[in-house]
Design a protein that fits this description.
The protein contains ten helices and 13 strands. The protein has 288 residues and is of the alpha/beta class. The longest helix has 15 residues. It is globular. Bound molecules: spermidine (SPD). The site of spermidine has 11 residues, from strand 6.
Length: 288
């Protein structure tokens, strides 16, 4: 991609081919890390007013002040929809944010974590310790490799699978295709649930329709939710969910007070309301 490190007059602009003609700009104070790994360009910035920011191939992956919204919702919606999630797989999200959230659940016995780019994990551990703290959890087994191949090698194993992918351009592309979802389904135990990064219903309509279609065809229970994240395109991002049994649109376990007190975004009402969709989106999903 040609837009790496386009910082003009101290402003980084995300110029994403998935969002043509529009850019999101953030003022940069310092470049803390900038290198090309085997898979992608990795940049870590100290912004002027928005904490540290991780950027892969020119696309914002997280900023410190709003990462909690995305990571809490992507993890806790499927985790609390499941009645007893013990064995978990997290694909992608080399920064460790989803792992940190999954690790808060005491019922979890084991977490497999598969990330293609080891360098992202190293950068997160060095520069984003409050996010990468999930890697310290002794229940986590790290697998470096392609998420699609890893998933296809797992059968009838997980209660919850969470996919924290980048956009469908670059290393994460095959994580938006039907064979990957077939693999996710086969990797689940009975009553299993998947939750995958589902882009924007405003900006990436074809991609979102495709994800909803695939999950509707494969799973008896399917739903699409969204999260408010100021530094993602359009200020929001979707999550595509599929379930082999449990209802998705409400927590199916009590959220203990001490658990709730650790969180900044997720709660029972946010869980339920995140599935309430605008009229044009309901129409978009009708009959597909
Ligand atoms: N448009 C960017 C979407 C990025 C989603 N994944 C972010 C990784 C944060 N753990």
């Amino acid at each position: 991609m040609e837009n790496y490190n386009k910082i003009v007059d101290g402003w980084f602009s995300e110029i994403c081919p998935m969002w043509p003609g529009v850019a999101l700009s953030i003022k940069i104070k310092e470049v803390l890390y900038s290198k090309r790994s085997k898979f992608q360009q990795i940049d870590l910035y100290q912004t002027s007013n928005f904490g540290k920011m991780l950027v892969l191939d020119g696309i914002i992956q997280l900023t410190e002040p709003d990462e909690f919204a995305y990571h809490e919702m992507l993890a806790h919606v499927p985790m609390f929809a499941h009645p007893n999630p013990e064995n978990i797989l997290v694909v992608g999200g080399g920064d460790g944010g989803v792992l940190r959230e999954v690790g808060r659940h005491e019922c979890v016995k084991h977490i497999d974590f598969c990330e293609i780019d080891e360098e992202v994990i190293k950068v997160a551990k060095e520069f984003l310790p409050d996010i990468a703290c999930g890697f310290d959890d002794p229940r986590v087994d790290i697998h470096i490799g392609d998420g699609n191949s890893f998933v296809h090698a797992q059968k009838n194993k997980y209660d919850v699978v969470i996919v924290d992918s980048s956009d469908p351009i670059g290393p994460g592309e095959n994580l938006f295709e039907r064979p990957f979802y077939e693999g996710l389904k086969a990797a689940l135990r009975p009553n299993g649930i998947i939750a995958t990064q589902g882009e924007s219903f405003f900006l990436h309509k074809d991609c979102v329709i495709n994800l909803v279609k695939i999950t509707r065809e494969l799973f008896p229970v399917q739903a699409y939710s969204y999260i408010l994240v100021p530094t993602y395109p359009g200020g929001h991002i979707g999550v595509c969910l599929g379930s082999l049994g449990p209802e998705l649109k409400k927590p199916n376990r009590t959220i203990p007070d001490d658990f709730q007190n650790q969180l900044k975004y997720y709660n029972s009402d946010m869980h339920k309301s995140s599935f309430v969709l605008p009229q044009f989106t309901k129409k978009m999903f009708k009959g597909i």
